[in-house]
Amino acid sequence: MQEIIQIAASFIGSLGFAALYNLHGKKLWIAGVGGMICWGSYLGFLNLIQNGFITNLLATVVATAYAEVMARVQKTPVTVYLISAIIPMVPGGTLYYTMNYAIAKEWDLFYRYGQKTLMIAAAMAGGIMIASSLFQMYSQIRVYYKKRKSCQKT
To answer: What parts of the sequence cross the membrane (predicted)?
Structure first.
């Protein structure tokens, strides 16, 4: 039951964030679904893999793939859907505690939370790079074979 509440909250959070980008109608709902898919995949991977870095990486790959596909279908920039989709995974809490412990000069806790924050951010950046690169490669291969096929007909 807790997972369902988290997924619903991620939908609402992503929906609200997409509204900041002035998305309306169908595109707004698609962006909300992106956040829901991202957080749902994060929870699913977390149950399968007990490694935070890999879990964040894979969930971000899923979110980026969703954003890339929806951007093509809706003829909208990828970043609109991508940022809305990954917003539930942003390590806001750990970043807050990192800064809080730095101000309090509790360096051991600062180091621990800072390391976790950087790990999540690096996993998210890596996931975006992997999925975007794979999608770009797929698109280029598809164009290549279309050109090759049309050249063979003539």
So the answer is: 6-23, 28-46, 52-71, 78-98, 118-138
